[in-house]
Q: What sequence folds into this?
């Protein structure tokens, strides 16, 4: 039921709207019709007045031509009576004329008369017509009106209208029409004229004004002069002032609008502005070339239409108010009360009370809205509870990720310089994960006193899985790296461990190397990683390396070692693919050529500033684009080799034993080593050198490198050979208590060496046997 009432109310409103639209269309149509009729009436009136003016102009021109004919008879007859009759009859025929007459050129009337003329005019003071003969005292030949007519007369039937002027006789502002007096030979003898007062024209113009504030002008375009006008700023009859004083020239008071309407009834219509007010301009060109101009204020033309529209608008408004009051009462009962209940429930929900329900039970649309609202509230309450649980879970995960990021950051070396007491090199590294935690890693640590291990690696994927795999990889690399394993052996051991139970198929690209601080040797293995940059000779280039298999992919993979020498001033620059594959908003990569260019641009910077400069260049290139991969960099700059180390290379031959002995003895004497200790060291050296000479290269030949370093009261002596792998420390100690014939041959020399020296270490580095002996000598 309520639904039907609402529909009826809606239909009523629609009908009311239709009525309003119909009234608006009717008002527009009638207004346009009235305005059109009003404009046509004004244009017809202007045309009528123009025709009346043309008839007057025609009569004047006809009269002045007739007067010229009479002037010729006056000249031929030389009779004053004929001249007087003609002048007075003309004035009687034109009651609106002020005066008229004949005016002859010098000596044209007769050869004895210089000036001759007859002028009839109406004397306002006496109230009668008068007739004057022009005497020799009045020099009319030099007057402006005479000169203008004489100069412009061309043919016998040509009439000239001159610019208004003040008449000397009547002191009135007048307009004059003149014609020429020609003889039978076509010679111009003089002129005939008819005068009319401007005041009379102005009174006639006032009868043309369509509205109270309309402006009517009679404009002489040929002389650019306003002949007569109704323009005034006072309530009295308009005062006629000369043009050069009043300034009432058409260009000065009228600005023609951009739009001009097509003329109708030979009356031009356009829009203009007069004294800042928009006017409708109507114009008609008269027969003598004058312009009749009428300017009507736009707000006065249709003032009756506006008043009628106002009355109708008030009536329609009153009807609408009555209808709207009725509609208000209807809406209050059917719609407002249920909506108020619904609004109250919404207000409760806005305060956070999701337990409230709208108590509207009607079966109309409002009731349906209330039931939908109640369901929405229940769903919202359930959704908020679910969101709260989800948000709490996300907060927990975020907190755990932050802790994981801190743990991961703590796993990587973060204190620089890491080895303050080692001046042989400078090292610096950074890692910027793409997410909270990353899959990149870097590490560096000493595997012995001289060899620095450097590692950089990139785990496949990102986020938590990559971070966990990264932690396992780092631990494996660090645990397997030692002086007893070369980089290749470390990589093989780590790869085998990662391949076991790797159901996720994750893998690692890695680069690992041992840098010997004593001699600059850098032995490395590239497990599918980006080739590092190396600065040698002042510029960075990519290190030529043959990548091996990635870690965690193939359990039987073999990792080949490569070697270069890093000299003082050289820099090794390791990085992950997050550097070269950084992208900008257009999807362009930072790429290896740009990375090389940026590195060389900053080639003279120390590691800390170098990595910072490159990272800034990457950020500038990305220009706000989201970081897609972890960015990790490590730079190792070589300052100098270990200071006091000495090195000698000789053939692995027993004949070179004395040379090696002398080399070591010289270094020990230089550091004031006691003789007794020198003897112990000499016995150990002899045993080790002899062992290398007899067994390392048999049956071939080779060299042995002897290195010695004496510092901090300790002597270090190292032997390096590229012979067969052999670790003498694995030999069992001889049983000195057994009978001589039961003792095993060999091993006694190494036993003595181990007894005489404080410490002996062995490692197989690459394809070399490296045995290091140390002895405390107590002096320096």
A:
């Amino acid at each position: 039921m309520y639904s039907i009432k609402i529909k009826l109310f809606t239909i009523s409103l629609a009908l009311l709207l239709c009525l309003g639209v119909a009234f608006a269309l009717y008002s527009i149509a009638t207004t346009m019709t009235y305005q059109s009729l009003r404009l046509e009436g004004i244009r017809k009136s202007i045309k009528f007045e123009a025709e009346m003016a043309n008839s007057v102009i025609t009569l004047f021109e006809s009269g002045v031509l007739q007067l010229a004919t009479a002037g010729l008879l006056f000249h031929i007859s030389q009779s004053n009576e004929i001249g007087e009759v003609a002048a007075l009859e003309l004035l009687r025929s034109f009651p609106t004329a002020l005066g008229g007459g004949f005016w002859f050129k010098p000596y044209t009337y007769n050869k004895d008369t210089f000036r001759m003329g007859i002028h009839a005019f109406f004397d306002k003071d006496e109230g009668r017509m008068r007739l004057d003969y022009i005497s020799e005292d009045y020099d009319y030949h030099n007057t402006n009106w005479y000169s203008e007519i004489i100069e412009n007369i061309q043919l016998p039937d040509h009439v000239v209208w001159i610019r208004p002027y003040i008449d000397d006789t009547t002191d009135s502002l007048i307009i004059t029409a003149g014609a020429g007096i020609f003889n039978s030979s076509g010679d111009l003898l003089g002129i005939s004229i008819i005068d009319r007062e401007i005041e009379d024209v102005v009174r006639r113009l006032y009868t043309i004004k369509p509205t109270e504030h309309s402006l009517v002008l009679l404009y002489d375009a040929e002389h650019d002069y306003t002949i007569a006008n109704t323009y005034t700023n006072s309530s009295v009859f308009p005062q006629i002032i000369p043009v050069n004083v009043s300034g009432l020239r058409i260009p000065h008071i009228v600005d023609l609008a951009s739009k001009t309407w097509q003329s109708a009834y030979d009356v031009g219509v356009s829009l203009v502005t007069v004294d800042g007010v928009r006017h409708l301009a109507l114009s008609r060109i008269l027969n003598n070339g004058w312009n009749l101009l009428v300017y009507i204020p736009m707000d006065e033309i249709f003032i009756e239409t506006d008043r009628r529209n106002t009355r109708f608008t008030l009536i329609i408004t009153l009807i609408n108010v009555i209808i709207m009051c009725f509609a208000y009462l209807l809406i209050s009962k059917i719609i407002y009360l249920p909506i108020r209940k619904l609004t109250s429930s919404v207000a409760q929900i806005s305060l956070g009370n999701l337990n409230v329900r709208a108590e509207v039970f009607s079966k109309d649309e409002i009731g349906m809205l209330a039931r939908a609202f109640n369901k929405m509230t229940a769903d919202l309450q359930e959704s908020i509870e679910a969101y709260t649980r989800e948000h709490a879970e996300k907060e927990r995960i975020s907190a755990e990720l932050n802790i994981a990021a801190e743990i991961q950051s703590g796993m990587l070396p973060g204190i620089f310089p890491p080895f303050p007491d080692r001046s042989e090199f400078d090292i610096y590294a950074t890692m910027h994960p793409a997410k909270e935690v990353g899959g990149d890693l870097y590490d560096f640590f000493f595997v012995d006193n001289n060899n620095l291990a450097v590692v950089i690696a990139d785990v496949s994927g990102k986020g938590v899985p990559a971070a966990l795999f990264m932690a396992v990889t780092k631990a494996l690399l660090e645990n397997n790296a030692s002086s007893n394993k070369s980089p290749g052996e470390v990589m093989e051991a780590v790869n085998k461990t990662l391949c076991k139970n790797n159901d996720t198929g994750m893998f690692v690209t890695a680069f690992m190397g041992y840098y010997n601080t004593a001699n600059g040797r850098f032995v490395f293995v590239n497990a599918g990683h980006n080739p590092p940059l190396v600065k040698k000779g002042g510029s960075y280039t990519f290190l030529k390396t043959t990548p091996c298999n990635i870690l965690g992919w193939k359990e039987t993979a073999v990792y080949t070692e490569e070697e270069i020498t890093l000299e003082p001033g050289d820099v090794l620059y390791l990085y992950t693919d997050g550097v070269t594959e950084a992208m900008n908003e257009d999807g362009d990569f930072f790429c290896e050529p740009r990375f090389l260019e940026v590195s060389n641009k900053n080639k003279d910077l120390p590691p800390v500033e170098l990595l910072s400069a490159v990272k800034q260049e990457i950020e500038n290139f990305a220009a706000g684009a989201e970081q897609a991969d972890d960015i990790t960099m490590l730079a190792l700059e070589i300052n100098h080799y270990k200071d006091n180390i000495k090195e000698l290379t000789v053939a692995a031959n027993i004949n070179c034993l004395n040379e090696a002995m002398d080399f070591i003895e010289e270094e020990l004497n230089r550091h004031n080593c006691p003789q007794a200790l020198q003897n112990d060291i000499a016995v150990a050296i002899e045993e080790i050198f002899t062992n290398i000479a007899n067994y390392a290269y048999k049956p071939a030949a080779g060299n042995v490198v002897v290195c010695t370093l004496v510092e901090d009261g300790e002597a270090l002596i190292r032997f390096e050979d590229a012979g067969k792998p052999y670790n003498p420390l694995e030999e069992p100690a001889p049983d000195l208590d057994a009978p001589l014939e039961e003792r095993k041959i060999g091993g006694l020399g190494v036993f003595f060496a181990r007894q005489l020296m404080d410490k002996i270490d062995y490692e197989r580095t690459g394809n070399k046997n490296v045995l290091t002996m140390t002895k405390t000598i107590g002096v320096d």
